[in-house]
Amino acid sequence: MAKGKRSSAPNPAEPPLVLTHPESERWDVQADVVVVGFGGAGACAALEAKAAGARVLVLDRFHGGGATAISGGVFYAGGGTHIQREAGVSDDADEMFRYLSLEVKGVVSEETLRDFCERSVENLTWLEGHGVPFEASLCPYKTSYPTDDYYLYYSGNEGFSPYKEAAKPAPRGHSAKGSGLPGESFYEPLRRSAHAEGIEVQYETRVTRLIVDGKNQVLGVEYRQVKRGLWSQLHRRLHQAGIAIVKYNPKLAAKLRARCFQIEAEHADVKRVRAKNGVILAAGGFIYNRQMVKEIAPKYRTGMPLGTASDNGSGILLGQSVGGKTDLMDRISAWRFINPPEAFAKGMIINANGERYINEFMYGAAVGEAMVEQNDGVAILVIDEELKKLAREQCKPGKAQWFQRAPALLYLWFNSKEARPVEELANVTKVPLDPLKKTLDEYNDAADGKAPDRFNKDPEKMHAMRKGPYFAINAGIKSKRFPCPTLTLGGLVVDERTGQVKGEDGGVIVGLYAAGRNAVGVCSRQYVSGLSIADCVYSGRRAGGAAARGEVYAAKDAPTPSQSTPIEAIPAIRESQVADLAPETRGVAKRRPRKEGSYPRQSLNRAIRRPGGAARVASSERGRLSKRAP
Prior knowledge:
This protein is of the alpha/beta class. It has 19 helices and 23 strands.
């Protein structure tokens, strides 16, 4: 944002409204369960709550869908789904658990991860029952996303060391059947099912704050609803247009969002809804709150936000406003996918020192983590003329999705620097010559089978590059011509059996639940394709069912995240094998003290007024604010 300009975006969350006599308050609407957000997690929560007999009201700032609707629509499922069996794939929940244990790294308890794996088959069947289409067409090659010919594929690191030694590899990426990026094919059946089952959904409705009583029990929410008719239709169309063009013209998309914000401010009515059993926060992450990203995870600020304007942190901040605890807020997934075309992955990625740091065929989020957390966001992809010709061949229609082919060709045309000898390659990439020569020699020897590759890359997936011309492509997180998509993974800490939001004291906040990217979940430590949507389904159904039943567990009975790998048989992992074992434990170079901003990097609690400091509302018909004694 240019200096001197103020953002038109509204405050994502206001301090809670504390009612001194809630029993005498007047409410505009009442429901058993109120769901904030109607993306993947919100839809699943609403459907599950409705199935449990609750009256459900869903409030969505835009027109539903969230990041799920614009995603690849991949659902990570295993344990022997009928899709896997029909495709001739053998899998079971134990193998899925063993693999995910390496990816999840104890971010949830062993009990929760096992439950997630054991419910995987059931959750896929549940999705199909609500109309989500899947197909048993197995992709025969490794790719970041298959063509429209295949809907089951290896969507993670299952086939690479050390994962394949710990668990039998199996394809678990179940893509909803549809052309291109079929996020809508996954989401729209859930929307239709919710409407068909009589769930009330209010669109163009922004929740501004939670309403609590004097004991901090969540009673409901206050929201601003754009007036029906012209203004709500204009708001919807502006938002949809912004989503459609954001990758191609982000400045225009920002102007369209600003117009939406203006409509919300000038043409909306303020209302309150009473949630008898509970409020479920399912409003997405905070990647579109750029100030929040800058202050909490500054290394990822230059990445391209992946999501929608609703991913502004509002759900997390609402939970924080009543004392909710957060964790892993600085965990952001950076997607550095270079395959397809496969020719790119047969080349090598180097850092500013001219050294490789990962198996280039690893999943894009693993590459991105290694790039940002260990190599200052630098990734220089080096290929030779033969690989460049092969890449062009692999970018022909029918050999990859259009959204994979077009960018790859643009990188070759406008984002590559040619160099004949190695000395010139070092010059154009601005890396030291001697380490680059050593790296190239080691890579060539491994490609020729003369020596093992230090990152366990299959020699059949390598290509010796002993002579130029070479081509260097800037694939770093700051590259303007090779944007790096990013999304947030952290959120509110929840009771892992109910999804209830936990406070700083370890107890639960009665009446408040969180799901999807509003909550710490299975994918909050590491991301593989389909795991976030799978967690949205799992956590959404968990919170929806618990809220409908009004379940409350004592803090002492809650499972705790694993502090170590829960499987003794998993082999030791060398640092060179995995992108990053635990970035929070790594030594980092000393930096100048940075001024604390509005959103502290780990805990946001200090930025939000707690209930004890919020304005209290006298129980009067007009609900006037009364001054609080100092």
